[in-house]
Amino acid sequence: MTRRHHLFTLATLAAGVLALASGAARAEDSVKIGVILPMTGPSASTGRQIDAAIKLWLAQSGGKAGGKKVEVLIKDDAGVADTTRRLAQELVVNDKVVALAGFGLTPLALATAPIATQSKTPMVVMAAATSIITEASPFIVRTSFTLPQVSIGIAEWAAKNKIRKVVTLVADYGPGNDAEKFFSSQFQLNGGTVAEKLRTPLRSPDFAPVLQKVRDAAPDALFVFLPSGQGAQFMKQFGERGLDKAGIKLIATGDVTDDDQLNDMGDVALGVVNSHHYSAAHNSPANKKFVADFQAAAKFRPNFMAVGGYDGMRVIFKALDATKGAGGEPLLAAMKGQLFESPRGPVLIDAQTRDIVQDVYIRKVERVNGQLYNVEFDTLKAVKDPGKLK
Ligand code: PHB
After folding, report:
1. Residue 350's closest CA among 330, 360, 335, 361?
2. For residue 42, how far is the Cα from the chain centroid?
3. Ligand 1 binding pocket includes 105 (Cβ within 6 Å)
4. Given ligand 1 and candidates 106, 112, 262, 385, which is best to mutate, with the most ligand atoms within 8 Å of its CB?
5. 104 CA to centre of ligand 1 in angstroms
6. Helix/strand/coil for 244
7. pLDDT, tens digit (0-9, with 9 covering 90-100), for 80-117
8. Quick count: other Cβ atoms within 10 Å of Cβ 33?
């Protein structure tokens, strides 16, 4: 080998080593978060809301945490649990995400829980709201809410407001079971009677037959929980069948008078009293800024799903700041105990349960400046998930 050739080889090698080193440095300078959402299918509004909230968070934060660039990979599961599980597996194994997030429906969160446990990947539930979810994996942290948390307040309000006999109507799966159980027991504890417990299927519900049963039972009020996205269709049929005119009061969780659809529901929604953890009309400087920034960027009103997504990003980013970008158990530990002012009000990630503790508001649908809003008129402070107090 000539001396010249030798030098050339060395130079090529050195260049190769340098290129490798800088490639490695680049990879270490960024971290990935894998978000799985129903962007299509019956729960697409949940995906659209959370996607917009994540984009707003990234724009406001500059997309950096713990000194690293944060890359968010958004995947569409169309609301199908087998797809959620497969996408989660790919995000963990191939993309090496430091956290999983999203989860638009309870079955999608439950299907992914074993992957979070096995890979020790923190999993932030931004939407799904059955009480049991946080117990499915020690790596789950929730920034949405639980149905027991929001159902008790409206039960107490009803009992105190001359409502004696109620029929309940819920979607027939996890969160519906929670809503039915916790509303009914709290209402009965306060002296009320639950005359009938009705359920509709999660997929393609037909409200006509159950509304006929409600009419026949003639209760003082109908209590309803349906997942985000079904409220407008239900409200339309409630009005068309004249149940409001028949003197049956409608009470609900705020999933039914969802800010995503509320403004298009019309007069039938006016006066509906409900309880929930977020209203776009929540009167605080933090929320006014959130709603204005969100609407400017997304061109629609944020709902409670958007806030779950926005706060979920906050929890992940602050935890990455604390671990300087490391994942696994340290990242999970840094999520526990976070206490902050959300657009919804003050919130805490309970270090023991990994679930969210938050204020729950009693609200009434009113027309404000020509638009329909859930106007808060009473507050239950710092409510823990009652599903875990047994
Ligand atoms: C759920 O599947 O856990 C869920 C979905 C939408 C809601 C509430 C709960 O509005």
Report:
1. 335
2. 16
3. yes
4. 106
5. 7
6. coil
7. 999 999 999 999 999 999 999 999 999 999 999 999 99
8. 27
